[in-house]
Amino acid sequence: MRRKAPTIYDIAAHAGVSVSTASRVLNGHATVNPALRERVERAMTELRFRPNRIAQTLYHHRSHTIGCILPDIGNPFFSQLFLQLEIGAFERGYTMILGNTVSTRALERTYLRTLAERQVDGLLYLGGLANDAAPDPADLQLVREVAEHLPVVVVNGELPGVPIAARVRSDEAGGMRDMLALLHTRGHRDVAFLGGRADVTTSLEKLREYDRIVPHAPAHWRQVTGLTIDAGREAMTRLLTGGNLPTAAVCINDLVAAGALAVAHERGVEVPGTLSLSGFDDIFVAQVVSPPLTSVNHNYGLLARAALDALLDGMTGPPADAVGHDLTGTPRQVDIPTEIVERASIRTVTRRV
């Protein structure tokens, strides 16, 4: 038979103290006599006492848990960022609860309600609704209702009209500008854009930079086919069969670049000999394909730390208004610079004068 779990009454009796003294020790009050504290803590160890976290949550109004909603943990970008968030949360004394929505809006709503009901202390929002170019007002209203009672930090996205605690983002538009500038210094003036989705804000940010810097690109150099390896295969196939070829192509992410690279190999197009190719996100895929991809790194560790710091500030600071500023008018936006990691997928083109 299983032994009955010890209670606080057992701890108090074993330590020879009152129940109220044992309770103060358990709940971290500093006013307990050190000798009595030591007796209670020794009794807890000897009886193998485990505190009731649900009861402590009700007592302290804190659960020491953080919710995280993201669209696809199988996507290396999200898994790499979540890993850094989980490590950072643990270092700060918090446990992460993941809501992986598998890019399903109904499940995203369910996780939002469930995490709020579980009384997480704060919520990190990645992708999904936060990257929707035309968010549903009803979905925004649901997040707004949660954010009125719970600090919410949006990472690499936004929730228009929602009183978020902060918006933390890596400079993806700047990363695309830097990549195009690198190609320019290597002699590339004819550059294609592969992948992305017209209904995802982060894709549109990168695409706007491309259209501004390469305004006269032929239509077949601009292949907005999606965010997956298959989308990269489709984009490269269309590029190779569409007419004249550029000397380089920037991809929306490393998965698209991997698919594009596979088609280039199949069609006998040398990378970077005939066509230079770059990725984005600097996930592990960028290092294992051949040639390894030059890519844009989000500074994942710094991005995660900034998001967690902003969330913890939101737990203890003033509430935010509907545009992400605190009530003193101080902006609550944190921008993290990206950086280019150069590998072997880009060559220098010698241009004739």
UniProtKB/TrEMBL annotation:
This is LacI family DNA-binding transcriptional regulator. InterPro entries: HTH_LacI, LacI/GalR-like_sensor, Lambda_DNA-bd_dom_sf, Peripla_BP_I. Pfam families: LacI (PF00356), Peripla_BP_3 (PF13377). One of its GO terms (molecular function) is DNA binding. It comes from the Bacteria. The keyword Lipid metabolism does not apply. The keyword Transcription regulation applies. Residues 6-60 form the HTH lacI-type domain. Keywords: DNA-binding, Repressor, Transcription, Transcription regulation.
